Amino acid sequence: WLAIIVEVIQQSWEDFIVLMILQGVNGGVGYIEEKNAGNAVAALKNSLAPKCHCKRNGKFITIPARELVPGDVVELVIGDVVPADAIVMGDEPIQVDQSALTGESLPVSMPPGGKAKMGSAVKRGETKAVVCATGANTFFGKAAGLIDQVEATGRFQKVLYKVTLVLLCLSLLLCGIIFITLIVRHEPVLKSLGIVIVLLVASIPIAMQVVCTSTMAVGSRRLAQRKVIVARLSAIEELAGMTILCSDKTGT
After folding, report:
1. Alpha helical stretches, state H, the chain
2. Which of 4, 53, 125, 187 has its CA 20 to 30 A from that of 206?
3. Each residue of 164-186: pLDDT tens digit?
4. What's the average model confidence in pLDDT over 127-131?
5. Are 46 and 68 in contact (CB under 8 A)?
6. How far apart are CA 178 and CA 172, in angstroms?
7. Which pTM does this prediction carry?
8. Within a 10 A sphere around the Cβ of 111, how many other Cβ atoms?
């Protein structure tokens, strides 16, 4: 964008158009690829959307878990995933696996009146439960909300920023030396300024972001052919730079 501003000041409209096309290609490729990835992720989420047995109009029917509201009565049997935070009813306790929430591998006994958290799995027993919280108001939803609040710049963006910053500093230094040299040799100021601007624009890596985005887009296409969904293009480079992946055995 700095180069574009410089070209506007100098009224070099040919270079301005070329630079704007490069910016448009860069933004367009990134937007289209990430939009396609987002659509694929949305389709996958819809196909894997949890369902539950809920009591409606006096009988239990199967509905998507996202349609639950506080006060609904759901039926929980062995193998079911608790669709929302719910208070256990009945006279007998059930055992639920909360490893996805707490990392604890052993099932936890949930007596009548206890709160079964969304995302836990029923391992033993059958019962009914009253929904007390759904979506972002559940224990799992609040934990996910805390994670979403973290905004960190990706490693790929940091590398690009550092490379661009170093090249820009070197370009400014060398262009400054060239400009002073031309002035000392009694060259016209406008002519010297034009030469320096041309060199500065040529030295700024305008196309680097375009090339990197296009390369990752090609990689995303190839991964998609192998049934891998890439939700964020920069994740490809970040994963490629990984040397050790650590994970615990529970709830993974």
Report:
1. 2-10, 13-47, 99-102, 139-148, 155-184, 189-203, 208-225, 234-240
2. 187
3. 888 888 888 888 898 888 888 88
4. 89
5. no
6. 10
7. 0.50
8. 11
pLDDT tens track for 133-149: 888 888 888 877 776 66
Angle CA 27–227–118, to nearest 5: 95
Which among 47, 110, 44 is positioned nearest to 82, based on CA atoms?
110
Catalytic residues: 248
Distance separating alpha carbons of residues 195 and 192, to the nearest angstrom? 5
**One-letter amino acid of 210:** V
Give CA angle at 101 (93, 123), nearest 5°.
35
Q: What 8-state DSSP symbol labels residue 56?
A: E
Q: What's the pLDDT tens digit per position in 193-227?
A: 777 877 777 777 666 766 676 677 777 777 777 77
